[in-house]
Amino acid sequence: MQWETVIGLEVHVQLATRSKIFSGASTAFGAEPNTQACAVDLGLPGVLPVLNEQAVAMAVQFGLAIHADIPEVSVFDRKNYFYPDLPKGYQTSQMYHPIVGAGEVEITLDDNTTKCIRIHHAHLEEDAGKSLHEDFHGMTGIDLNRAGTPLLEIVSEPDMRNAKEAAAYLKAIHSIVTYLGISDGNMAEGSMRCDVNVSVRPKGQEAFGTRAEIKNVNSFRFVERAIAFEVERQIELIEDGGKVVQETRLFDPERDETRSMRTKEEANDYRYFPCPDLLPVVLDQAYLEHLRSQLPELPADKRARFQTELGLSAYDASVLSASREMAEFFEEVHRVCGDAKQAANWVQGELAGALNRESLSIQNSPISAQQLGGLIGRVLDDTINGKAAKQVFQALWNGQGSSADEVIEAKGLKQVTDTGAIEAMIDQVIAESPAQVAQYRDSEPEKRGKMIGYFVGQVMKASRGTANPQQVNGVLKAKLDALL
Ligand code: ADP
Ligand code: MG
């Protein structure tokens, strides 16, 4: 039997507002437990929530970025359940009238083809607190700092068909929200968490199978691993005559498996009703247009422009547009040196390699985009050769000099193209290498091409890498052949 996997994701994005969604308490990460939860976050009697306008603006910008319908009116609902990290006994969320309606997100697959994933809707809600299970002598501690932090929950249609597509989708969402600056996208700190819905069905069957929901998967890699495990589990279960039950499961990265947490609750269990403390949110056209006018160029548009306008390959365009920082760095390098292909090569080659070796992100690159662009410019105008360029790169990386020109000057790396000077160096090398010259003379003509490498190496060495290699090659060949 051939099986097909069906995946839908619910991604929770923590919005980068300074204060909480319904209170003025700070959202900063990592403070002492319970120092950033005010009376509203605690749900104390007599307090009223006030909606954070910034959270609304961020949600709408996301909606505009994915070309979604933005309904004129959205409504907050109470989702009632009991849990120690939820002091109010309900979570304020949006069930029936979310702020962002249907839209779509373009994902890029490994072979650089793209696919559209439909978004069912996105809604605003507040985060809960956190249970702390360590260091409380058998008791559980509660930290309410996170309670009331604004979240945008983005719900996809079940449009993904394998783990790679799900990871690509998550990366696309990450890229959109960080381009927009509406989230720091820090997955390790929980700024983006994802519930993965997985089912399988016989290939060719139209109806979906029963799904399991895997909660709180918090890295691109874990998404792939959780799905791989879950798909295998479901297929095995069905092939052994069993049935998948609709339930909530937890991914355990240590053991690389998912475990049952609870059977899935239905909407009824939550007794949703409109929150009487909050007015419906009404957005007029002028407000939407104002937010639209502030949208930056988005990843999919940038990727397309890098290909059509700058002539980059699909691969280069996709790598260089993956993050806003990467894209802006590349664009600055390109602006300074004027050659997109060279800028792309240097950013993805020499620079990416060096950053990787030292585990640095591009924001922390010791060499700036202006410096790299300047360096490439000097290669393009033949001031230095490729070998010297690597030395200049290293020097700038190490902070020895503020610009390529300064390093080239200080280290005397200017390419020697003066024919007289090159000829003099060649004559000297030939004079000092009688054995190699004899060998050259005595070898088969077709082997001489290879042997010339030795002489080129010696001349380059004598010039401390500054001679123009093509020129050296040409003159050497003529001089050696004249000796035959
Ligand atoms: P609920 O309201 O119970 O959470 P939804 O219908 O809103 O369920 O779906 C939640 C998520 O599950 C969505 O991302 C959706 O795409 C996905 N989903 C729904 N049905 C399936 C299925 N059979 N297989 C995989 N994913 C599914
Ligand atoms: Mg849901």
TrEMBL record:
Q: Which InterPro entries match?
A: Asn/Gln-tRNA_amidoTrfase_suB/E (IPR017959), Asn/Gln-tRNA_Trfase_suB/E_cat (IPR006075), Asn/Gln_amidotransferase (IPR018027), Asn/Gln_tRNA_amidoTrase-B-like (IPR003789), GatB (IPR004413), GatB_C_1 (IPR042114), GatB_Yqey_C_2 (IPR023168), Gln-tRNA_amidoTrfase_suB_CS (IPR017958)
Residue ranges that the Swiss-Prot or TrEMBL entry lists as coiled coil: none
Location of the Asn/Gln amidotransferase domain? 328-480
Instruction: List its EC numbers.
Output: 6.3.5.-
Keywords of this entry = ATP-binding, Ligase, Nucleotide-binding, Protein biosynthesis, Transferase
A Gene Ontology molecular-function term?
ATP binding
- What reaction is this protein's catalytic activity? L-aspartyl-tRNA(Asn) + L-glutamine + ATP + H2O = L-asparaginyl-tRNA(Asn) + L-glutamate + ADP + phosphate + 2 H(+); L-glutamyl-tRNA(Gln) + L-glutamine + ATP + H2O = L-glutaminyl-tRNA(Gln) + L-glutamate + ADP + phosphate + H(+)
Instruction: Please report a single Pfam family linked to this protein.
Output: GatB_Yqey
The GO biological-process annotations, alphabetized, read as:
glutaminyl-tRNAGln biosynthesis via transamidation; translation
Q: Does the keyword ATP-binding apply?
A: yes
Which domain of life does the UniProt lineage start with? Answer: Bacteria
Q: Which NCBIfam families match?
A: gatB (TIGR00133), PRK05477.1-2 (NF004012), PRK05477.1-4 (NF004014), PRK05477.1-5 (NF004015)
Which PANTHER family does the annotation name? GLUTAMYL-TRNA GLN AMIDOTRANSFERASE SUBUNIT B MITOCHONDRIAL AND PROKARYOTIC PET112-RELATED (PTHR11659), GLUTAMYL-TRNA(GLN) AMIDOTRANSFERASE SUBUNIT B, MITOCHONDRIAL (PTHR11659:SF0)
What is the annotated role of this protein in its UniProt record? Allows the formation of correctly charged Asn-tRNA(Asn) or Gln-tRNA(Gln) through the transamidation of misacylated Asp-tRNA(Asn) or Glu-tRNA(Gln) in organisms which lack either or both of asparaginyl-tRNA or glutaminyl-tRNA synthetases. The reaction takes place in the presence of glutamine and ATP through an activated phospho-Asp-tRNA(Asn) or phospho-Glu-tRNA(Gln).
Q: How does it assemble?
A: Heterotrimer of A, B and C subunits.
* Record family assignment: Belongs to the GatB/GatE family. GatB subfamily.
- Name by which UniProt lists this protein: Aspartyl/glutamyl-tRNA(Asn/Gln) amidotransferase subunit B
Native organism: Vreelandella nigrificans
